[in-house]
Amino acid sequence: MKKSLFALLAVLLTVVMTCFVSGESPFAQRLTDKAGLLDSEEYDNVLSELDLNSDAAEIDIVVYTCYGLEGYGNVEQAATEIYEKLEFDTDGTMLFVDMEGREWYILTSGKCMYAIDDYDLDGISEDVVYYLSHSDYEKAFIEYSYEVYDLVLDYNLEDTYEYEDEGFDAGFSFVISLVVGLVAALIVTGIWKGQLKSVAFSGKASRYVVNNSLNITNSTELFLYRNVVRTERPKSSSGSSTTRHTSSSGRSYGGRGGKF
Amino acid sequence: MTALNEYKCPCCDGAVSFDSTSQNMKCPYCGTEFETQTLISYQQEISADTESSMEWQSIGSDKWSDEESKEISVYSCNNCGGEIVADKTAAATSCPYCAGPVIITGNVSGTLKPDVIIPFKIDKKSAKQALVNHYKGKILLPKAFRDENRIDEIKGIYVPFWLFDADADANIRYKATRVRFWSDSRYDYTETSYFSVTRQGTLKFERVPVDGSSKIDDALMESLEPFDFSQAVDFHTGYLSGYLADKYDVDEQQSVSRANERIRKSTEDTFASTVVGYNSVIPVSTGIKLENGKAKYALFPVWLINTKYKDKTYTFAMNGQSGKFVGNLPCDKGAYLKWLGILTGAVTALSFLVSWLISLM
Prior knowledge:
The structure holds two protein chains of two kinds.
Chain A: H1 2-22, E1 31-33, H2 40-57, E2 60-66, H3 75-85, E3 92-98, E4 103-109, H4 112-115, H5 118-133, H6 137-163, H7 170-194, E5 215-232, E6 244-246, E7 252-259
Parallel strand pairs in A: 1-2, 2-3
Antiparallel strand pairs in A: 3-4, 4-7, 6-7
Helix pairs in contact in A: 2-6, 5-6
Chain B: E1 7-8, E2 15-19, E3 24-26, E4 33-34, H1 36-47, H2 66-71, E5 72-77, E6 83-87, E7 102-106, E8 116-117, H3 124-135, H4 143-147, E9 155-183, E10 187-211, H5 218-224, E11 233-234, E12 244-246, H6 252-272, E13 280-309, E14 312-319, E15 325-326, H7 333-360
């Protein structure tokens, strides 16, 4: 009994020491504020919102702030690699803020790539950047959390709706069947009516052309001008995604970044 | 003083001027730019357009000789004004057009004699059978019409035709387009290239038929085509024995407009078929000149029957050489609505059943 207790204590101590050394919890928290943008009360508020919204939306909504890009080449790469290193859910999103370069990046992963498209990222970033620019970091992170939560919830509902069995709508089916029946009947009776007509002008004299009598003495083909029409391709509604990139491990992510 | 040339825009017909910025000709109305040489060439093409000149050397046929005219009688119908000719031994008593009584009014002296005739190949029995077959399978044909059988009143008649030969010398200009599509991640592109295409050349026509009787519907006669001219023979009164012949009342001058129309359309189509590799080809200017135009007078064999149904006359005709049978039939409106209802109901029920079965899956 004593030996077991000692063994358990040793394991726990090892884990705590590891965390102390690395500064990271093995069960990474959804809020990492290395840049020290939040005081303790603000930190708790933001973390609580992130956890609440993440659980409700069944994804990981993460915020990570730091000074510098932690050894990575650019903000997109930093956000991607850190998200993977911290082993967050496949379905998730991260707001990465680099206070040294005053850069931000919103990373999307898994179903968040479809729930949050480029148009949505524009909307989120507009609000987040506003608050970041005004140094209202707590508001920026909470706003980010709520907007992501709303979008993913809508996406989840849409997904559920598509698979929900609506049952057989007899009225609608009857109307469609009637239209199909009428069109088919009109086609068939139209063919029968057409059989009654057999008299028509020939209109041409092709039969009376002397064989091989066509003699083209002059032919010209002159290019006049060219006209190019460009139409924007429609953005598909559900099933849209962000512009993609891949991590070092080969996984696909979406995202958008900028400066503030 | 040099003449000033005004160049027309091929796109909108506006006056084009030189644009010093692009160093090209530019239309101030539609904004399209052209290379200077392109416009010069286009202008030359337009000025080379010719008007159509479809004149015919009318060669009248020989007239009946005195001896021949003695063998032929002309019968007139007081009811519809139709004139038919038959040999003196014919017992023509009713008009083939309106079934009215006919009387001998004169002879053919002084009128044109046919150049050629295609003798009847199909006999009356086959003609009757063809009429019966024409009714078969017509679900919307009124039963009363089918039962009012005037099949014995079918008459063999030689219909007068004018046969036109000509060489068409054509100069046709077309507007042609070539379309290309491509896309990138954001846009779909449609590129349309416009071309001016000209074709000049000749095309020979022989024996373009136009019927010379105002009593017979032109559309009915054109529907009976073709007649195989290789079986035509020089006319002899003997061929009329047992048959009637319609006397022409539309002379060759009056028939040319129909011949011209058919020749013009066929020439445009034949020349257009040489313009390949384009998505659309539209004739813009057609100039056709006819050379060596001549007309012949011929008699072609037709089995004819007229019948009345609900105060409307229905005419059926059969090509007396090939056996082709034509004639518009009346439609039983009651049967039409009945079948429309039955088919609508049946297909509606079937589709409803299918949609219900799919919903169960």
